[in-house]
């Protein structure tokens, strides 16, 4: 008997459109012989099932069901593709835990930790893993711009503590740009991170859980045609080269990236599919961030990794759902 799968997308952040595109890809590639798929859009004031004909039917949040004509649809599992809040930070996971519906993404504790860059950086640093030097401020705290430059140098990256897809991030090249960049970051979150610039190559490592095993995908090098891998570069065709497998990566670095990613996947108690990002220089490897719900739209990195590994999107999605149902 086919399983009913809710593909949950949308959300409350600047990644809404990316999430919608990810849901479309999931729906197109879910095995129709195994699953009945339903796109469920979550917005700040509305949760609804989006029918293929465009009709919107409000969800019953008491048990996360939907009434379609005379039939009440209940779901065997949720395929979570909400990037940002509330799908990537643990809020939505708490709801599904309470009502007893399994979901594809990492759980509450893992999602809360990894989405909060300030806390995640402290966690990673506790294992002696290299991180860019940084300073953090809460909204309303006094900021000494000259002290920031003295400690971290220029250029700098200024980013919201909790956001994804490079929403709210600015690369700052002189001290006069810091105030505006902090204001932009604080539009997305009430804590800002200010990090030193590390001149190196950006490498992504994707991991897919398959039962008790981990599949580590070929590495991808990200070469942005903008100053950095910002929102435009991530989602505008031709604005970045995402090269998989990453060329001319020293064997030792490749092994370190893959081993470190698998280690952190376990230590952070991640689930499903996750992408770890790094910068490496001639001297060191630096942890950049972890994405527990990475994009899986046509423009996203992880599907490219899976295909390079030899795994079709249908096969990838089957593995993800087989983990939970």
Structure description:
The structure is a single chain. Helices cover 30% and strands 28% of the residues. The chain is of the alpha+beta class. It folds into 3 domains: 3-104, Rossmann fold (3-Layer(aba) Sandwich), CATH 3.40.50.20; 112-130 and 199-322, ATP-grasp fold, B domain (D-amino Acid Aminotransferase, Chain A, domain 1, 2-Layer Sandwich), CATH 3.30.470; 134-196, Dna Ligase, domain 1 (2-Layer Sandwich), CATH 3.30.1490. The strands form 4 sheets. Strands 12, 13, 14, 15, 16 and 17 form a 6-stranded antiparallel sheet that branches. It has a 5-stranded mixed sheet with strand order 4-3-2-1-7, covered by helices on one side. Strand 3 and strand 4 (56-58) form a beta hairpin. The radius of gyration is 20 Å and the shape is globular. The two termini are 13 Å apart.
> How would you describe the shape?
globular
**What is the CA–CA distance across the termini?**
13 Å
Mean pLDDT: 91
Number of strands: 17
* Top-tier CATH class of the largest domain: Alpha Beta
Helix content: 25-40%
> What is the domain tally?
3
If you compute it from the alpha carbons, what radius of gyration comes out, rounded to the nearest whole angstrom?
Answer: 20 Å
Number of helices: 10
Which percent band covers the strand fraction? 25-35%
Structural class: alpha+beta
Order of helices and strands: EHEEEEEEHHHEHEEHEEEEHEHEEHH
Spans of at least 5 consecutive residues with low confidence: 228-235
- Which fold name corresponds to the CATH topology of the largest domain? D-amino Acid Aminotransferase, Chain A, domain 1
CATH H-level superfamily title of the largest domain: ATP-grasp fold, B domain
The CATH architecture term of the largest domain is 2-Layer Sandwich
